[in-house]
Amino acid sequence: MRVADIMTTTVRTVTPGSLVDEVLDLLITYHLTSLPVLDGDAVVGVVSEADVVRALVARDPRAHVRPVPGGEQPPQLVEAVMSSPAGTVRPEDDVHDVLARFADHGWKSAPVLDGDRLVGVVSRSDVVRALHRPDDSVAVAVAESLREVGHARWGVSVRRGVVTIAGPQGTDERDVAERVARTVPGVRHVLVDGT
């Protein structure tokens, strides 16, 4: 499964000069965990829930013996709280590899760049939605993908994301069946029955 297969293409963005309160509004309104930060068309950073709360949540003087000295104002602009440079991915990247990067860096999402142009965002939620795809929808998509490579006669069944393909004969056909099926979002495992 590639990033392009599951990414969200309607992207909310902010600029370095956007107010942190605007970020809070967008995160809450659109149920997001982060936003790409654009300077013109260039992605210059990402502002996440973690960035915002780290900047805005002060110590509570009731929780400590001594009160926290006052007078400090929290950052008001995105440029003061954003993470830069942004960790980005490409539409052709394998989702498996992207998830490994998410785990390594503690990311929940990443901007998707085609060259230097922002074309989407991919998140763990996008992956979860792809994995939760109904079996009948997965079966139709796998059958269509097999048809596109000239194997419309093979039978396809799906149960809980496990695809069974009946009909491929020989190692080459079995390999084609498995490779094609694995490209379809929602496929968790592929079984090839050549009998």
What attributes does this structure have?
2 domains, three-stranded mixed β-sheet, CBS-domain, single chain, Histidine-containing Protein, Chain: A, alpha+beta, 195 residues, two-stranded antiparallel sheet, elongated
Mean pLDDT: 90
How widely separated are the two ends? Answer: 27 Å
Stretches where pLDDT is under 50 for at least 5 consecutive residues are none
> Which overall shape is indicated by the principal axes computed on the Cα atoms?
elongated
Assign the CATH superfamily of the largest domain. CBS-domain
Question: Biggest β-sheet, characterized?
Answer: 3 strands, mixed
Per CATH, the architecture of the largest domain is Roll
Q: In which order are the strands of the major sheet placed? A: 5-6-7
Structural class: alpha+beta
What CATH calls the topology of the largest domain is: CBS-domain
Quaternary state reads: single chain
Order of helices and strands: HHEEHHEEHHEEHE
Whole-number total of structural domains: 2
Radius of gyration: 22 Å
Number of strands: 7
Give structural notes.
- The protein is α+β, with helices and mostly antiparallel strands.
- It has 2 domains: 129 residues, CBS-domain; 59 residues, Histidine-containing Protein, Chain: A (2-Layer Sandwich), CATH 3.30.1340.
- The chain is 35% helix and 21% strand.
- It is built from 7 helices and 7 strands.
- The chain has a 3-stranded mixed sheet, covered by helices on one side. The protein has a two-stranded antiparallel sheet with strand order 1-2.
- A hairpin with a 2-residue loop joins strand 5 and strand 6.
- The model has no long low-confidence stretch (mean pLDDT 90).
